[in-house]
What we know:
This protein is an alpha+beta fold. It folds into two domains: 2-64, Ribosomal Protein L9, domain 1; 65-147, Ribosomal protein L9, C-terminal domain (Ribosomal Protein L9, domain 2), CATH 3.10.430. Helices cover 36% and strands 32% of the residues. The chain has helices spanning 23-30, 41-73, 95-106, and strands at residues 2-5, 18-20, 36-38, 76-81, 88-93, 115-116, 121-123, 125-134, 137-147. The strands form three sheets. It has a four-stranded mixed β-sheet with strand order 4-9-8-6. The chain has a three-stranded antiparallel β-sheet with strand order 2-1-3, with no helix packed on it. Strand 8 and strand 9 form a beta hairpin. The chain starts with a strand and ends with a strand.
Amino acid sequence: MRVILKSEVRGLGRPGDVKDVADGFARNYLLPKGLAIEATGGELKHLAQERQAEKVKKDRAHGDAEELAKRLGGVTLVFKLKAGDQGKTFGSVTTKEIADALTKEARSPIDKTKITLHEPLKTLGVHTVEVRLAPDVRANVTVAIEPA
Length: 148
């Protein structure tokens, strides 16, 4: 019997997968527990429409992320921190502060988890910070730390 999985079944597949399974397994386990539905012509068409809609949504999100990456590429954020004699600051610039500044600058919400800092920004000067907007879309933002 052909079924469309509605949720992940260990050893069988993920949601949306169309699988051929034994009739008894489908009738006695998958269908009663709501883990799958029978793959009829109408259900297969519905699944194809859902996949197409998901693809369009992903393409739109990817395009928006690329546009935002272009806007962020030229952004320079300036932070003022108290600093000692050797240029070492008292405190650091965190991903949350960078995300808040980018959100104001780009007028688009940016989550702090998307910002990659290899080490805390604790020294005066210009630093480059990577922002992951999508799995394959990244933008480099310049962060300048000046003495207060």
